[in-house]
Amino acid sequence: MKIVAIKQTIIIAAFSLIFGALLGYIISKSAHQHTETSTNQHINESANQHIDESAHQHINESANQTWTCSMHPQIRQNEPGDCPICGMDLIPLEDDQNADIDPKAISMSPTAMQLANVSTAFVGKMNPVKQVRLNGKVQADERLVYSQSSHIPGRIEKLLVNFTGEFVNKGQIIANIYSPELVTAQEELLEAQKIAETQPQLFVAAKEKLKNWKLSDKQIEEILKSGKTKDEFPVVADVSGYTISKKINLGDYVRKGETIYEIADLSKVWVLFEVYESDINWIKKGDKVEFTIASLPGESFISSITFLDPVIDPKTRVAKARVEYNNSNGKLKPEMFVSGLVQAKLANKSNSIVVPKTAVMWTGKRSVVYVKTNSEQVVNFIMREITLGSALGDSYVVEAGLMEGEEIAVNGTFSIDAAAQLAGKPSMMSPEGGQVMTGHNHGGTPSGSNVSHEGHEEQPKSTTSKPLSIDKQAKEVLEPLYTQYLKWKESLANDNFAEAQKNAADMKTELGKINMSLFKGDAHNAWMDFQSNFSKNLEHVQHYSDIEQLRKAFQSVSVTMIEMTNSFTPLGKTIYVQHCPMADNNKGADWLSTEKEIKNPYFGSSMLKCGEVTKEIK
To answer: What is residue 595's three-state secondary structure?
Structure first.
């Protein structure tokens, strides 16, 4: 009985021990799992918090980042993408890292410079040489043109040279003349011969009378030997050359000394070039001229200027430069059109500073360039006003403002200027700084893009002096000029060459009708300058053969029109100054319009809406 009780006790104890161990294992595992879960949860929560903070910071940075186009810096977006105007990739708008060094400098990264096609060059000195292009015609040498006259009065019985252009040799018979006076003189000679022994002086006088009519001694001897008078006498050529004018016809009666032919010796000819008033200072006697003739392709000729007109033609405003050429082979013929080129050197301007035209931004009154300075991280450009001298074709002589060795932007200057305007730095249109751009309109701003200074129009400062006062009558005479100018603008926008050429010619006509006496005092001096510029740019509009030539002339006329509008404000309504930065090979060009709507005269239908309103003249 005791043994059974002991066994039961042992079994219960063993079971309790096993159950306790199992329970302890379960509790221990549960605690470990709880601890591990808490630890992992804490780690995950920390990681998530860090991710959230990084994402939040990234979102804030992205929200604060502005993206722009290197070619159209007025485009501003909050996210990367393509430019809605040109399709180029947008780039981050970088802060001006050099502002603390020079507040007037505009900074550009190498990437932005490459995308904006900005290139630079060092300023150097050289001897200014200008290629002056001249147009002219071949003319006969005036010293070798002869008037062949008749020394005998009478009726033309025969013409042996019947057309213009026929070549005659000296001594050649060119006509026969019947002369009653000569018949009478021959009869007097024959009668004087009979009494020659008794009255020799009368006989000699009769001979001399015939000699005065250019009869030779041989002809007189033939008359004396035959004892008969001649009804017709020949007229012989005094010189050799080409007949350039025929003055008589068969049966005409001519007086003694009357011209019957004009004969020119074309073995030497003149080439008369037209030299415009603006180029006269570049041309001088002795300059070499290389010229070509359209009818002789592949050939070029070289000769020197032997004479320069001392007087300018008051109608054409040109002077003639004469080149003499030995034409023994007869290739050059009078009235041939000639194109010449002179490599002209400007006197007293040796070793001058010369810069490309692409480097200069010109407003009509001011000329500016952008000078490059370097820092550790970025390239900086500072606007500088310069004084221009003579134009050298694709470059300018700089009188003041630059020094040899300085580095300037020679391409992409408009992109730099646009960035300066957007940053409120000194720029071409705002020399004192301040944002003046109102957004570049290419047919509306696409959704998703924010144009800089949206809804804010700050007008650029005028490039002219204070307005000049003119009376009502002077303003009225200017209205037709504006009418034709605006029609010209519309025709160019419509790509209508014929109508644009007519409008330009009509504007030239209206200019000639304006009475300069209506402008008084300072206004008179200003008008004379405006009129001179108009006349120069409108002079050849009726001779242009394509619309691009008309657009180039319109660009120059627009500069003067804008300056005149700022000075006189002649219209009784608001007029807008509009600008296209892509015109004139990306140098930019302006024009006037009475409507805010952009109709680009420089590109027409290809880019009709390209442009912006930069000023409002009320």
So the answer is: coil
Cβ count within 10 A of residue 497 = 17
d(CA 547, CA 563): 24
Instruction: Match 């041309």 to its residue by tokens.
Output: 283
Task: Compute the C-alpha angle 432/433/436, nearest 5°.
Answer: 120
Query: What are the DSSP E strand ranges found in 331-378?
Result: 337-345, 352-356, 361-362, 367-374
CB atoms within 10 A of CB 109: 16
> What whole-number distance in Å separates Cα of residue 601 and Cα of residue 609?
10
Structure confidence at residue 448 as a pLDDT band (50, 70, 90): very low
CA-to-CA distance for 25 and 535, rounded, in angstroms?
110
Nearest CA-CA partner of 212 in 185, 238, 231, 237: 185
Spatial CA neighbour of 494 closest among 545, 502, 576: 502
- Please, are residues 268 and 143 in contact by the beta-carbon 8 Å criterion? no
Predicted confidence (pLDDT) per residue in 475-510, tens digit:
888 889 999 999 999 999 999 999 999 999 999 888
Check: CATH 2.40.30.170 for 268-345?
yes
Contact present, 415 and 75 (Cβ < 8 Å):
no
Q: Residue 94, Cβ neighbours under 10 Å: how many?
A: 15
pLDDT-derived band of residue 376, with 50, 70 and 90 as boundaries?
low
Question: Domain boundaries in the chain?
Answer: 1-64, 151-257, 268-345, 472-617
Please report the pLDDT score of residue 34 as a whole number: 44
Q: What is the DSSP letter of 255?
A: -
The span from the CA of 352 to the CA of 387, in Å, is 13
- The dihedral over CA atoms of 267, 268, 274, 277, expressed in degrees to the nearest 10, equals 180
| CA separation, residue 228 to residues 184, 193, 222, 463 (Å) | 12, 12, 9, 93
3-state secondary structure of 435: coil
212 burial (CB, 10 Å; 0-12 / 13-18 / 19+) is: exposed
